[in-house]
Amino acid sequence: MNNRTTSKGISYGVGALVTTLISVGVVIILYGTGFLVFNLLSLMACILAPLGTYTIVYALIKRKDILYYISWGLIILTIGLASVSYNVMNPLVIFGVLLIGLAIIGLAAYWRRREVGESS
Known about the structure:
Structural class: mainly alpha
Largest sheet: none
Distance between the termini: 42 Å
Order of helices and strands: HHHH
Number of helices: 4
Strand content: under 5%
């Protein structure tokens, strides 16, 4: 009997949980030491931006359901960036860039499936 276990890497959920816990830990330290003044929007940005980035990196590394993870990663990252930069840049600009990015991803997926369908 072979008792060896093979590792396929970590699942998305485990990585997302670790990313969220690290983000919350860093934010608590920054708030506790006085480097940041508590603001609900900056708290949300400090949690969502790393999670969105992790989701995009996960999609690019795992190559599993890449469009799904990249799309949701962009959405999460955009919400995080909009919540931290609302006083510098209009959030509508950021959401407009998000929509353009999602349209490009959708178009690329359409072309890719069309090429695969033609070559079969």
